[in-house]
Amino acid sequence: MENLDTKVSAFGFAFSAKMKEDLRTAAGWAQIVAITGFVTSALVLVTNLVAERFLQAIFSAVINVLINVYLLRFAQQTKRGIENIDQNDMEAGANQLSLYFKVYGIIMVALSGILLLVFLSALVYANRF
Amino acid sequence: MEENNLEEASFFDIQISGSISLSLTKAARWAKLLAFFTVAVTVLFALIMLVSLRDANRISEKVLVTIVVVAIAITIVIVAGLLALLFGFSTKIKNGLRTFDTALLERGIALLKLYFIITGIVYMFGLLAVVTGLVVRIVNS
């Protein structure tokens, strides 16, 4: 880690103007994704609660909030970092981006496991009847 | 003189520090895993839908199957586009950070931007669908 820092300073490896512009746009859209995700999950939560699908309501709400919280933090910290030329905010933003992909990835791994089980049981059920 | 100014500007600019480099590398690695398992989820979901609808006999059921197949095809196209962007982002960021190649990093971040733009548009359509569904349900009840 220290080695990398030294190397970086020695070569003056900084964010270019294009990178900052693209990151600012990415952060803006990430914020839209996160806020839209929160609104959608709130509406889905209400719909599921009204239909008395409590387990589905809780699961979808928790997953949506978990993913979008990291995305919103990435968006806010990165935008603040670029606007104020703040190294700490940029580092925190990059960390939130990695956490977003990590949490999203783990959820997708779990979901594909569940779907595989559902698919296998659907095949067994279809062949039995 | 101009070169000096550039160096000074980049010295005071936001640096791609060890911490940012490490976080971006991790993000790239997890993005690739996310892309791979999103393919798995999409394929499994499509298979489950097809298995549950394969015994459709009546005309109304056949129409339903056609609608589902078209919906699955559209979803696969959108997901494939997003995954191509994620794979591109992952590969370019990892290689760019390893070789200190600014051009590669720029392309990687541009792909991340495009990924969030398309995801944002898809999410807005999703929200619209949920709101429409709610309105229809309220009107019908």
SSE blueprint and pairings:
The complex is a heterodimer of chains A (129) and B (141).
Chain A: H1 2-11, H2 17-50, H3 54-84, H4 87-128
Chain B: H1 2-12, H2 18-53, H3 59-99, H4 102-140
Detailed description of the structure:
The complex is a heterodimer of chains A (129) and B (141). Chain A has 129 residues and is an all-alpha fold. Chain A has helices at residues 2-11, 17-50, 54-84, 87-128. In chain A, helix 2 runs antiparallel to helix 3 (54-84) and helix 3 (54-84) runs antiparallel to helix 4 (87-128). The longest helix of chain A has 42 residues, at 87-128. Chain A starts with a helix and ends with a helix. Chain B is built from four helices and no strands. Chain B is elongated and about 65 Å long. Chains A and B meet through helix 1, helix 2 and helix 4 of A and helix 1, helix 2 and helix 4 of B.
Shape assignment of chain A = elongated
Helix-strand makeup class of chain A? mainly alpha
- Number of separate strands of chain A: 0
Q: What structural class results from the helix and strand content of chain B?
A: mainly alpha
State Rg of chain A.
Answer: 20 Å
Q: Report the major sheet of chain B.
A: none
The arrangement of helices and strands of chain A along the chain is: HHHH
Low-confidence stretches of chain B: 1-9
Rg over CA atoms of chain B? 22 Å
H/E element string of chain B? HHHH
How would you state the average pLDDT of chain A, rounded? 86
